[in-house]
Amino acid sequence: MEYGELRWINIERPTPVDRAWLEEHFDFHPLDYEDVQSRNQRPKIDEYPDYLFIVLHFPVFDKAVGRLNAAELDIFIGPDFLITMPNAPLPPVEYLFERCRASDEVREAMLSKGSGYLLYKIVDDAFDYCFPMLRKIGNKLERLEEDIFEGLADEVVRDLSNSKQEIINFRKVIRPQRAVLRDLERTKQRYLAEDLEVYFDDIVDASERIWDMLENFKEVVEALEDTNESVLSHRVNEVLRVLTAFSVVILPLTLFASIFGMNVDFPFEGTVDAFWGILGGMLVVLLGMVGYFRSRGWL
User: Fold this and answer.
1) What is the mean pLDDT of residues 193-217?
2) Is 263 found in the same domain as 203?
3) Global pTM value
């Protein structure tokens, strides 16, 4: 896609054929091509006399495994070109590219201000794409908090674990590239007009807002885990308290039965009155123990 002298090339999941085409039309460093093929490249910026090579990571939800993963976006930017190569479907980049290709007005607005401004729009849209995911995580934590205090502590243990894992994965994606964005803010002037420099400050601000939200979510989910464990522990203690009280109540009755079950002589042995007297004594002791426990709030 072209506008004026600027070209935007978007290659999703680059293959060896795509690499061969790039090597034929662009004089990039061989190590950059290796980084594009690598699946575990860290976020970074490599500066060259004629271009910048940028690696960024953004969170995407993988429906196949049901969790957040990192999508790598490799970018080559020069005075008259910008090449984006996501290694996984990255909706904000795809959407912006299709909008520019389908509309002359959008293409003019995005590409007429140079490659630096186009880079800003791509990165900015990718970071804006993070906020709906963060809102979903926040809503999920609110629902989990309600469930905990509605007596569903047993059911939310797995959901708490899944939410914590999502937050950890999100942090693993965002944290390494905070330094990269600061480097990008430093190198942006090579391809950006002076009156547009403030735009990249907005990207750094968005990144910091995302990080602040993740820090808050991390504290919230840890607090919910502690609260849930306290609720479960309190519930177990309640059960143990009741069982202990019943055990203590039954203990004197067991003692009565043991004494009168011994093979020795005792008054009224072998009479019906002895039987009813023993039952009456056990009943009096039982009612007395229950009444005492209830007066102390143990039952």
Assistant:
1) 81
2) no
3) 0.75
